[in-house]
Design brief:
The structure is a homotrimer. Chain A is built from 3 helices and 8 strands. Chain A is an alpha+beta fold. Chain A has a single domain, classed as YjbQ-like (Jelly Rolls, Sandwich). In chain A, strands 1-8-3-5-6 form a 5-stranded antiparallel sheet, with helices on one face. The longest helix of chain A is centred in the middle third of the chain and has 14 residues. Chains in contact: A-B, A-C, B-C. The interface between A and B is medium-sized, with 33 and 34 residues.
């Protein structure tokens, strides 16, 4: 069984906190104890877990990645968005989070972020159960 | 239960599309609904999910990683392949993919790539079931 | 069900081999066949799988990451540890490892490393079952 939710991004690159959406998907799937896979079915986006308290952390991650992997004329891929593909593989298109008593097991400061690297676009995130301890 | 398949790489670095091999392993394991872990048991290789339609995307990822992490004399590890170890940790040695009705749940453009960072070599990839919803 | 173990790190950045701790957690959880998620509930740390035979490999990974993502005055986040947050997202806060007959399925040279990027600190690592094949 699979749940999904939409993400609308507003600029070429940004990190969007989707922790609440993932929590809603976990409830929808009825996962009580086990784990959830958050999977991004796009090749110019990613998902990461990092600090959600100070939004400057997400901005720093976004801008540092763009400094390391700038949009460059030396890429071969004709669509001109290879920087986004590289970032997608560096950050990764999935995260797995444990679930206990229906709640995500996250650290105090952790949130789940959709990473847009080639927006603005309408995106989709999948959530599925992995591990069915109960 | 565990399935595996071989990958023969042809140069020092390359990304090899192994989506078909993963699909075959998922059939062999009899996974109908749940998820599969693709695990690379090597420390100078990795696995990533990215665009499989245009092979230039994989080439751009490969060459950008080599630009970020060049083979360098300043590494301490005596075997002289620390660049490959660093890339392996940056990309990661596993991916988890949801399975629905026996099919991998991937986005339209996504394929699964074995990442060779210290070839050419004969490599192995493991596939195992994670999550047994049914 | 969830197990956890502490990690005490001794410097600002370091990679600590926690393979034995993960093995002990897998035994504690009674996982015989399936998979284990190793999850770091911190936003300035990570977990990776890489070579454990030669400790210089971990040192090379640590120093190359610091070269790519140095502590920089240009970050906005006021705590001054954005480099650690960026590295955390680049390496990732979880790894999934298959378990067969109660043993971690790792390659010959692979070990599991806790990655400290903003120490020294007292840290915690969670281990949970994902996939309950039996």
């Amino acid at each position: 069984m699979l749940a999904s939710f939409p993400v609308r991004t507003g600029s070429r690159t940004s990190l969007v906190d989707v922790t609440r959406d993932v929590e809603a998907a976990v409830r929808e799937l009825g996962i009580r104890n086990g784990a959830a896979l958050i999977f991004v079915p796009h090749t110019t986006a990613a998902v990461t877990i990092n600090e959600s308290a100070d939004p400057d952390v997400a901005r720093d991650i976004d801008s540092k990645l763009s400094e390391l992997v700038p949009d460059s004329a030396s890429f071969r891929h004709a669509e001109g968005n290879s920087d986004a593909h590289v970032k997608s593989s560096m950050i990764g298109c999935s995260e797995t989070v444990l679930v206990e008593d229906g709640r995500l097991v996250l650290g105090t400061w952790q949130g789940i972020f959709f990473c847009e690297f080639d927006g603005p676009r309408s995106r989709t995130v999948y959530v599925g159960e992995v591990g069915g301890g109960g």
